[in-house]
């Protein structure tokens, strides 16, 4: 039996409103996207706008121009080794391929300069330039750079070349990963979409509280209460 009909049915109405809004959120009415995908794309584009570290990282890699290194890199298979060899050769390095293993000798600064150039093109969604440069998929190019940087970091640390390993890791984390994850996303400044951002945050808080109060009113109206 319902103890307080007014409170119970008030909670029911609130729950129905919650469900109607939820259905609207999942409809593709936001530029062909549903609400969740629209906001996900919005926040990705805003975060991309503040994740452009390439010029700053280049200042660090330029310090290693003229610094020669020799590393042995283990790739997943021969195909990846052959693909990755092209990356180093475009950076002026000498590369010897033996199965899935690469032996690379060259100017570390120039190698990383080429890596940053590819990452920069990918960050600006110019993937065709990258794929045309090496003759295979642009995402695969960045993935191979990521694997190569990871292997370089490991080998350089074995050689106790910790400064060189550090800058390689910096390139991998701040540029290669960022450009790969944000590829084909158009960057936006939060100041350009501040109205939508503020509305979405307020809506999230209010919508969550609305659901909570709807549940509370329904149960209290039904006669169920918390006792201490």
Helix and strand element order: HHHEHEEHHHHH
The total domain count is 2
Tally of individual helices: 9
For the biggest β-sheet, the strand order reads 1-3-2
Total strand count, please?
3
Largest sheet: 3 strands, antiparallel
Global geometry: elongated
Structural class designation: mainly alpha
Q: Ranges with pLDDT <50 over ≥5 residues?
A: none
Terminus-to-terminus distance:
23 Å
Strand content: 5-15%
**Overall mean pLDDT:** 92
Radius of gyration: 27 Å
Please give the share of residues in helix.
Answer: 55-70%
Q: What key attributes describe this structure?
A:
228 residues, mainly alpha, 2 domains, 9 helices, 3 strands
Task: Please specify the SSE layout and strand pairing.
Blueprint lengths: L4 H21 L9 H15 L4 H8 L6 E7 L3 H12 L4 E5 L2 E7 H16 L3 H8 L3 H21 L3 H20 L12 H29 L6
Antiparallel strand pairs: 1-3, 2-3
Helix pairs in contact: 1-9, 3-8, 4-7, 5-7, 5-8, 7-8
Describe the protein's architecture and organization:
With 228 residues, the protein is mainly α. It folds into two domains: 80 residues, no CATH class; 129 residues, no CATH class. α4 packs across α7 and α7 runs antiparallel to α8. The chain starts with a helix and ends in a 6-residue tail after the last helix.
């Amino acid at each position: 039996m319902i103890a307080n009909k007014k409170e119970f049915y008030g909670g029911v109405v609130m729950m129905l409103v919650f469900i109607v809004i939820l259905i609207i959120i999942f409809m593709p009415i936001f530029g062909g996207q549903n609400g969740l995908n629209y906001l996900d794309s919005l926040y990705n584009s805003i975060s991309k706008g503040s994740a452009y570290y390439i010029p700053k990282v280049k200042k660090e890699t330029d310090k290693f121009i003229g610094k020669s290194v020799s590393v042995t890199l283990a790739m997943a298979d021969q195909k990846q080794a052959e693909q990755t060899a092209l990356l180093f050769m475009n950076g002026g390095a000498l590369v010897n391929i033996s199965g899935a293993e690469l032996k690379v000798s060259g100017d570390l600064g120039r190698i990383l300069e080429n890596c940053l150039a590819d990452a920069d093109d990918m960050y600006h969604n110019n993937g065709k330039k990258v794929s045309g440069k090496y003759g295979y998929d642009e995402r695969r190019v960045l993935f191979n750079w990521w694997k190569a940087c990871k292997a370089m970091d490991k080998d350089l640390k074995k050689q106790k070349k910790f400064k060189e390993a550090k800058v390689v890791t910096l390139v991998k984390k701040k540029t290669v990963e960022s450009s790969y994850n944000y590829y084909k996303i158009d960057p936006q400044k939060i100041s350009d979409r501040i109205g939508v951002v503020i509305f979405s945050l307020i809506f999230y808080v209010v919508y969550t509280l609305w659901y909570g109060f709807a549940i509370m009113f329904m149960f209290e109206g039904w006669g169920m209460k918390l006792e201490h």
